[in-house]
Write a structure and sequence with these properties.
- The protein is built from 13 helices and 8 strands.
- The chain is an alpha/beta fold.
- Strands 2-1-3-4 form a 4-stranded parallel β-sheet, sandwiched between helices.
- Helix 3 crosses helix 4 and helix 3 packs across helix 5.
- It is globular and about 55 Å long.
């Protein structure tokens, strides 16, 4: 158990476990530093979000299955992926308000000896760091203040909306990620396009739409001469980090912008070696951030 008694059931979802390893690596490193224990969910699967529009019941079954696995641990769920966070919380909302669906889901889960009760809470990494641990606690562990860095936050859509269900932050004026950035000693700038979507939802169907959405934000940030963009969602990160070259060419952005996961940034402030944070796995020029600190 962590030194402060904080324990969470870690839900990775698909993208992080199969592609965005740096997000998991850096999260495990900072949580170890903070004395938080992460319990892996054995047997976890997709959250169901990709098939929600095709088969609502199958989505609810998959989401409830993961939640029932977490209930077995007696812990709240910690999500790193904002899409998974939204999917699990919306499924929880649906099942709490529809006894017939909940009964159907539990009949299906009974084949695996599982039962969904709705006991555990679902939290995003931003909530755990900001609300459960607190900004001051993070500052106590900072060994290398990242002063001089001017950073923009990208909270993304699925951390904030639908706001009646998620309530992770103010959907119109989110401040938590900015405050977390400032805990590292860096400056978090405000900008009008902060709430704009990255366009990840269009990546497979209409990639030119993704490039337009993401390109607008990258163009704005390049003009503001930021030192980097901070992400907390693997889908958003993939768009801005791995696809930045193609996006920049399409919209005409000459300056490449470093894209960094928040736990990577915090890990650098904690004095953790960049390789242990998976910095070498980022595709954007994160070495620019390393050179400035």
């Amino acid at each position: 158990m962590g030194s402060d008694g904080l324990r969470y059931a870690l839900y990775l979802g698909c993208m992080i476990a199969n592609e965005e390893y740096a997000y998991e690596m850096s999260t495990r490193e900072i949580m170890r530093e903070l004395g938080v224990e992460l319990v892996d969910l054995e047997g976890e699967s997709c959250c169901g979000s990709p098939i929600r529009s095709l088969n609502t019941r199958l989505w609810l079954y998959l989401a409830a299955r993961n939640l029932s696995l977490a209930e077995r641990t007696g812990l709240d769920v910690l999500c790193l992926c904002s899409g998974c966070f939204e999917s699990l919380l919306e499924a929880k909302h649906f099942l709490e308000n529809n006894e017939a669906l909940k009964k159907w889901v539990n009949e299906a889960l009974s084949l695996e000896g599982l039962e969904y009760t709705g006991r555990c809470e679902v939290k995003h990494l931003v909530q755990v760091l900001h609300d459960d641990l607190g900004v001051e606690r993070l500052r106590e562990h900072v060994k290398k203040e990242l002063k001089g860095l001017k950073l923009a936050s990208h909270p993304g859509c699925h951390l904030l909306r639908p706001s009646k269900v998620l309530r992770a932050d103010d959907p119109e004026d989110p401040r938590k990620l900015d405050e977390l950035i400032e805990a590292s000693g860096a400056e978090a700038i405000d900008y009008p396009e902060k709430l704009d979507c990255c366009g990840a939802g269009l990546l497979l169907m209409k990639p030119e739409g993704t490039m337009s959405f993401a390109g607008t934000k990258l163009k704005t940030l390049a003009a503001r001469e930021v030192d980097g963009l901070v992400t907390v969602c693997p889908a958003c990160h993939v768009v801005f980090d791995k696809r930045q070259g193609a996006i920049s060419r399409q919209v005409g952005v000459d300056k490449r912008i470093p894209i960094i996961y928040y736990p990577q940034l915090l890990g650098l402030a904690f004095g953790i070696e960049p390789e242990r944070l998976g910095i070498h796995l980022n595709s954007s020029p994160v070495e620019q951030i390393l050179s400035k600190i």
